[in-house]
Amino acid sequence: MKIKVLLILCFLLPTASFAKESVPQDQIDAIQSTYQSIPGIAADFTQQTYVALIEKTVSKQGKFYFKKGGKLRIEYKGDEERNYVSDGSTLWIYTPGDAASMQTYEISEETVPREALSFLSGFGKLDKEFSIEPSKAFTEIPEGFTALHLKPLRKKAQYKSLDTLFNKDHLLMKLKIHNLSGNVTDYEFTNIKTSVGLKDGFFTLGSGKATPDTLPEKEIHSK
Fold it and tell me: What domains are there in the chain, each with its CATH number?
């Protein structure tokens, strides 16, 4: 008798309490439109990574540059100065001023998956790249901001999910990456500039190619 009563109660409960929350389509469209229209981004960032294996949080900061086509440049500053440069097909990792530190990787499923360097491009096609829900990862969401919890639809994705916070201009301000390893990395972006005059040579290294360590200020233009 008790089992029957419990079953009846379950059916009588409002169905809305079991439904997943959804994100208004106009918010998704606004973010997609923004990332489809901007050619590049430059920003400062702070990074905090919780390393599950040693139960320790590691903090870093630096400069971040992104250009359509999977082009990426990350310059870590401070005691562990390090640059990560990619033209979309090759990744170079090196310490500025130390030629012997150079490491080169072809971007592939076996080495560095393309999505690891280009998920920002996915913000231009959120509906196709991710399942989307409201994010509850941020303690404070300012008015006009949009917080999304994104799970990659691709089965071989190299991360479990992303929590993202976009500002009123629909640009990424905070990013939380939940890695398969159990590590969680938080990024906060400041001094964001779009419509940036980033030349392709800024994302290449090697024989016969440019090897820039800094981007001339005259090449940066705010939106």
Answer: 22-211 (2.50.20.10)
